[in-house]
Amino acid sequence: MRGGVAPDHPKIKKVADVYDRTARKPYFRFIGNVDIGEDIAISDLQQAYHAVIFAYGASESRRLGIPGDDLAGSYTATDFVGWYNGHPDFTDLDFDLSQEAAAVIGQGNVAADLARILLTPVEHLERTDIADHALEALRDSAVRHVDVIGRRGPAQAKFTPKELDELGRIEGCQACVDPMELELNPESWEELEDPRNRNAAKNMELFRAFARNDQWDAERTCRFRFFESPVEILGEGRVQGLALRRNRLEGEPFRQRAVGTDETGRIDCGLVFASIGYRGTPIAGLPFDPDANVLPNEKGRVLKNGKPMRGLYAAGWIKRGATGLIGNNRACSTETVQCVLEDAANLKSAGRGGGDDILRMLQKRDIQAVSYAEWDLIDAAEREAGAAHGRERRKFVHVADMLELAFRNGQRGRS
Ligand code: NAP
Predict the structure, then answer these.
(1) pTM for this one?
(2) Ligand 1: which atom is nearest the Cα of residue 65?
(3) How far, in Å, is the centroid of ligand 1 from the Cα of 291?
(4) Residue having the nearest C-alpha atom to atom 26 of ligand 1
(5) CA nearest 43: which of 280, 281, 284?
(6) Per-residue pLDDT reduced to its tens digit, 123-170
(7) At what angle do helices 77-84 and 109-119 cross, to 10 degrees?
């Protein structure tokens, strides 16, 4: 929530209140600032707990893997999102926003967030919890035109209509589409007519409305392009353009794939952001499916060589891949917890020390664990710092500063 949800979506962040209520229950213990696989091994967890649920998400970006991908000005959405949200792992990245035109590859909600943050007049972000360094960089940003590029067509764009609609409502910015690109093949019409595909039908209406805009020369534009795949990021020393290949769709409705044609094109742009999905990463000691980038599992039971590993479970993006809204995780985790309950009788055999064991191990290894009471101190300090500027919070963006604050009261010395 903190590192992924866009700063101008405070309502979505309200979900934290639900987690907060759970965290304050007497049977819940939060142990923060611990890196599983480094500070604590999987075998340590197995020794301490009867059941362990891994819900560590998907934190890495998928790269385009095309020539020019490594040029200055070519970025991934993951890095940019982590940076503007003040995630400590991304805080020290540098984004050069001195260019007028940017291309975003991918048409999911992350691409929508990214395009919106780039195009929103900075005064609308000043009251949000966006990281201070991002606010300052966006204040000086020269970015005025963003092309959001899909390899398939408008009927296959993955935005949710609310997020797409927002892109049409940015102050001083015109959302536009070339009407020719909204022509659909019969398979896509069939997809749109399916009642389970209401989001796509609503998106299509929005695209049609954007296509009626003839203000391509607006000061800021968000242009949607379809049926194009990037083949090379062009430039000498830094990004200067993007070479694209035209695609056509092939396959049954809902299984249509983008297939390259001989037709090519190029656009001029100084920035490229790949927003083609997130990738889960392995943890030493756990099996990993390198194709799906998830923990191999059945309904949440982690599998090794096709067999469930006793007491190990997965939920969320690391269970099913990096798709789905926060709400989708509810059903996903219910399914996992159901498995834990079904297995419970067989898991209870030996007594385990639980969190006390883990805390003892951490202390021995000189790792400073953060309790929920200490997180409360960090949270309160951020809110206080924000209130002085009429903002929800001002985030700490370095772990060392958070720890300094959390342990300042001297209950626990720094090691
Ligand atoms: P996504 O929804 O899966 O979108 C990924 C996009 O990248 C798709 O348009 C996909 O096209 C395209 N793509 C993938 N590989 C490509 C390639 N090699 N070349 C060109 N295009 C490629 O993923 P996401 O945007 O990262 O979002 C992840 C999940 O988080 C989604 O479920 C999203 O809804 C959710 N989320 C929600 C919010 C919100 O509610 N505000 C905000 C952020 C994220 P194809 O369709 O052709 O594969």
Answers:
(1) 0.95
(2) 18
(3) 17
(4) 277
(5) 284
(6) 999 999 999 999 999 999 999 999 999 999 999 999 999 999 999 999
(7) 50
